[in-house]
Amino acid sequence: MPPGRPILLVEDNPDDEALTLRAFSKNRIENPVVVARDGVEAIDYLFGTGSHAGRDAALMPAVILLDLKLPRIDGLEVLRRIRADERTALLPVVVLTTSREVQDIREAYRLGANSYIRKPVDFERFIQAVGQMGVYWLSLNEAADATGNGY
């Protein structure tokens, strides 16, 4: 897939981060990847604050891959803040987590997640899942900006 807008990967586990980046590479997903290692860093990136002060906050990611179990601010709170702000309310958010807890799945969808994917333990299955996710969210999906228009 040709490079495009960045992917925001919100992941605190270095092994899962490395596996995800490797899966992107194997699937020829060439979008730049911005990694936020906790919820605060994700929020700072999206809104151009804190450690990302001065970033052009008008350039939003094509998709946010959001883990739930994060330090400082958990993934559900990050999702809540994304959906509460008109600048980010329509961004595609895919929860990518190991959690199988029914309450996490329900709450993620209640808060506006576009998709909930449990990370496969098997790396080959993970590569497949990332490839399918990339085709859909980066090639097929028609995204809308904060005004409801396409990007």
UniProtKB/TrEMBL annotation:
Pfam families: Response_reg (PF00072). The modification 4-aspartylphosphate is found at D67. The keyword Phosphoprotein applies. InterPro entries: CheY-like_superfamily, Sig_transdc_resp-reg_receiver, TCS_response_regulator. Gene3D superfamilies: 3.40.50.2300. PANTHER family: RESPONSE REGULATOR RCP1-RELATED, TWO-COMPONENT SYSTEM REGULATORY PROTEIN. This is Response regulator. It comes from Thauera sedimentorum.
